[in-house]
């Protein structure tokens, strides 16, 4: 595995995985990047075979970040051979079959959190498999410089901003002190909602046990 202090240090000429960016594979906590070429080749082959985006919540983890998120002591993420993939736009059964076909051997199921862990380590599995059938959502390919953001989060943000806009318009009908109080209250509600979304995204991004 090649280690880089930061994903921005990877030479562009050496990055051959067209459907993923160094930032997408890098540690979410430190920005460090561990490149295991064999594992990334399998990940790209899986993406090509499924013909749909793979939305990653976690790939490489630095040892310190792995400890911070409560990962397994010998987590495959620290070796750069593990990936947590959200299932919004996948049929979990089809996804698993395709992952096994390209060479993934470790599988962890997290239906409540909405993702499957795959790795190229020892053959094993844990957790309760997803129910048969697609999850029903089609998700567009993520922006390569803005990865691991939930489509649900983005939609919620739009709703919050829209609601805030409507609230501001309504405040215009008030006067004086009432306007100030209403605007302050709306700001507090909006900040609280954004904080909740950030925490949910953090938890989704910190998978694998």
DSSP helix fraction: 40-55%
In terms of structural class, how would the helical and strand content be classed?
alpha+beta
Helix/strand order: EHEHEHEHEEEHH
What is the beta-strand fraction? 5-15%
The tally of helices reads 6
**pLDDT below 50 for ≥5 consecutive residues: which ranges?**
146-158
Tell me, briefly, the overall form: globular
> How many angstroms does the end-to-end distance come to?
21 Å
Question: Secondary structure elements and their pairing?
Answer:
Blueprint: E1 2-4, H1 22-25, E2 33-35, H2 37-50, E3 56-58, H3 63-68, E4 82-86, H4 92-102, E5 106-110, E6 115-119, E7 124-127, H5 151-171, H6 176-205
Parallel strand pairs: 5-7
Antiparallel strand pairs: 1-2, 3-4, 4-6, 5-6
Helix pairs in contact: 2-4, 5-6
């Amino acid at each position: 595995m090649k280690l880089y202090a930061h994903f921005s240090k990877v030479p562009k000429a050496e990055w051959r995985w067209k459907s993923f960016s160094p930032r997408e594979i890098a540690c979410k906590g430190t920005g460090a990047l561990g490149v295991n070429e064999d594992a990334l080749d399998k990940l790209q082959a899986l993406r090509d075979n499924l013909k749909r985006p793979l939305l990653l919540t976690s790939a490489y983890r630095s040892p310190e970040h792995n400890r911070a998120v409560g990962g397994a002591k010998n987590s495959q993420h620290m070796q750069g051979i593990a990936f947590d993939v959200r299932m919004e736009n996948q049929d979990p059964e089809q996804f698993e079959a395709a992952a096994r076909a390209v060479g993934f051997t470790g599988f962890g199921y997290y239906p409540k959190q909405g993702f499957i862990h795959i790795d190229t380590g020892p053959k094993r599995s844990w957790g309760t498999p997803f129910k048969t059938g697609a999850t029903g959502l089609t998700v567009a390919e993520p922006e390569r410089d803005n990865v691991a953001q939930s489509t649900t989060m983005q939609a919620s943000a739009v709703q919050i901003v829209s609601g805030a806009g409507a609230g501001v318009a309504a405040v215009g009908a008030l006067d004086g002190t009432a306007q100030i109080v209403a605007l302050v209250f709306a700001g507090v509600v909006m900040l609280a909602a954004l904080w909740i979304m950030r925490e949910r995204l953090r938890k989704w991004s910190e998978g694998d046990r």
